[in-house]
Amino acid sequence: MSKIVIVGGGIGGLAAALAVARQGHRAVVLERAPEFAEIGAGIQIAPNGIHALEQLGLGDAVRESAVHMRELRFMDGVSGEHVVSLPLTEQYQRRFGNPYVVVHRAELHTLLLRACLATEGVELRGSCTAVGYEQDGGTATLLLESGERITGDALIGADGINSAIRRQLVGDGAPRISGITVYRAILPMDQVPPELRMTTSVTWWAGPGCHFVHYPIAGGAYLNLAASSDNHATEALAGVAVGKDAVRAEFAGLGEDAHKLLELGEDWKSWVLVDRDPVADWCDGRVTLLGDAAHPMLHYAAQGACQALEDAVLIGELLDCSADELPQRFEKYNAERRERTAKVQLAARESIKLWHPRGQAAADRNAMLSALSADQLHDEVAWMHGVRSFGLNGEQK
């Protein structure tokens, strides 16, 4: 049995702890915050993410607690035209093996946290701020801000886009500022006009240099609102309160229906979106990275959590080994994950070209999308949603 030190108690870190504990290893999870908790709003989980959760023993629990979507609905945010919907019902589920669901981040985190607390071999520690690591031929040691040193057989950095472990391992500086600001709010569903509730849809309203997405969370009790503006922001900001009037002005280019929902939002907060360029190597001997620490991406492909879950499952599968073999297994993990995760990172960036055209370019986009059949739409997402195992030779439908 090896001791695996995991930095970061978010979705990826807890999933990794479950995965390695299921192989008989001891997982010690260190979280910077005093308590293990998750902030943020809704997230989407495609079938590949649910397949990963199944392998962690949580598939049924997520399917039961999540809201199941029937379509990804694309609207022209200026005219209000329904351009196309990607259906998520029987045909989609037969092909990809699971539903497409949405949850509040805290719901998914709580399921993972409870599973860790119930799993022998998982230790959770809060108030532990990582600043770096050291290693020798047989161990890896996490260095904490307090001066404490925590030594294990291996170390996994799951400490997010501003990872202290990545800073030392990759050394690629600050994240890339996308120039896009996203404004988020949560709205009680009973305040939404019945004709705009769309309780089984993830709905996008695409406009000139901006778009607006919403979907239900918390069992359908709330509507999660996220509106993105390509406003050339130059400073990385997170969770900054913003007034309703400012949001309304930012999205003046959207039409009446989209604005009806934007008007209802309260307590808006803003984030300037950041990501990083893909890198080929995120391993250093007995130290590796996972999730946003390894391959942070914009949220537009709705795959950030799914890719972290895939990472965790594959690490668990590969760590059926002795402590001596851990560096080689980490190298294999890196080699088997870098191409897929880089493709998702770049696809998330490229998707902005779908959301933000204006004028004739928007009309051409609408014509292109509306001409696609359900099968063709499913083909477009199959490489992301259809994977059921997460290495290079992963099964895809």
Task: Supply the key terms.
eight-stranded mixed beta sheet; globular; alpha+beta; FAD/NAD(P)-binding domain; 397 residues; six-stranded mixed beta sheet; 35% helix; 13 helices
Question: How would you characterize this protein structure?
Answer:
With 397 residues, the protein is an alpha+beta fold. The protein has a single domain (3-174, 276-385), classed as 3-Layer(bba) Sandwich (FAD/NAD(P)-binding domain). It is built from 13 helices and 20 strands. Helix 2 (47-55) packs across helix 3 (59-65) and helix 9 (304-318) packs antiparallel against helix 10 (326-350). The longest helix is centred in the C-terminal third of the chain and has 25 residues, at 326-350. It is globular. The mean pLDDT is 94.
Number of domains: 1
What class do helices, strands and sheet pairing give?
Answer: alpha+beta
Shape from CA axes?
globular
How many helices? The count is: 13
What is the CATH domain class? Answer: Alpha Beta
Averaging pLDDT over every residue, what do you get? 94
Give the C-alpha Rg. Answer: 21 Å
CATH topology: FAD/NAD(P)-binding domain
